[in-house]
Amino acid sequence: MSFEAFWANDRHIVNHYDNEVPYHVLDKNDRPSKKVDVIGSVCPCAGLSMMHHNYGDHNENNKWLLETTKFVLSDMRPEVLWGENAPGFAGKIGANIRAQMYGIGRENGYSMTVYRTRSLLHGVPQVRERSFYFFWKGDRTPVLNYYNRQHTPIEQLILGARGNTLQTPINPKAPSKDPWYRYILEVINGGISHTEFSAKVEPSKARGNDSFSYIEKSGHPYTAVSEWLKSNGYEREAAAALRKHAKLESGGSIMRRGVIVPKDYIGAFVGHYPTTLTHPVEDRFITYREALTIMGHPDNFELLDPAKSSNHICQNVPVQTAEDMATEVREYLDGNRQTINSTYTFQYNATRTLETHATTSRTLSEFL
User: Fold this and answer.
1) I want to staple 61 with a disulfide (CB 3.0 to 4.6 A). Which of 47, 139, 206, 218 is the partner?
2) b/e burial code for range 143-180 (CB count within 10 A of at least 16 → b)
3) What is the pLDDT of residues 196-207, one digit of tens each?
4) Class of domain 4-151+318-367
């Protein structure tokens, strides 16, 4: 079930399902009549994401959280509605939207759980903070499992990418031709290749994950970098280096979106990552297929019109993270999760803590 506004994103999964799964467009009065037990939701997260310049209660994207919750809980009435959103959903930024969603749930006889986690804890090699929300029919909430899976190193994940299509690099340029990364290879590391640099970089030094952070951690001032850039014909970059130096000297901050060499794990695979993340061995940036693999997509998943759709890869929920949450829903329905007297529960996977924000009265037998 979706809305016409989301066809650009939906078409990839519709194509993957190849008509085996019905697709209903709700604002075209195309509504399913079938009763289902579980409904999952992936509403736009821009409204509550701090990466969006206009995040907050007032953001127009938040309406989808309210509209879908009301429609599903009042019209479809599944046993469970669960969904995913930005990390801010579980914090102060999302407090008002959460309160409205909780109210919709109670009006329709549902309790609510908010579960905050990060994909690294689910075995996905990226630090991707996310919030999940669950509506359970009734006046109790289950105690969901906590996760801390060992992740596959990001370089191994990329090297293991399979599939016969989408093998074109998202960014067609060679990383070693990037002026800033070239400075790292030639000046800081004495003229080594991308392959050699990738092999020698230590995970602890890859945490900055970009060429600018590496330059700074190596103790090379941007004034020196500027001189080298200018002597090699990079006039524009040389001027940029001096601006970076001035901002840092004055206590300001700079944007760091340089070449990223994968090692152990990366930050959230969003924004500039598809065009700046390199292959761990070859002197090139990652392909569309490798990007899909990072997010956990199956080898036969196709990205339609890839040149214009690469950001759609970033807008997904990493598959393993979603699978763990879906597993919790299934285990609850199978009676394998303890439930508690709370209609509004928060769980934090990183700290393994649980908070109840609205308890229900207990029966005498439960008290005893």
Assistant:
1) 47
2) bbebbeeebeebbebbeebebeebeebbbeeebbebbb
3) 999 998 877 656
4) alpha beta
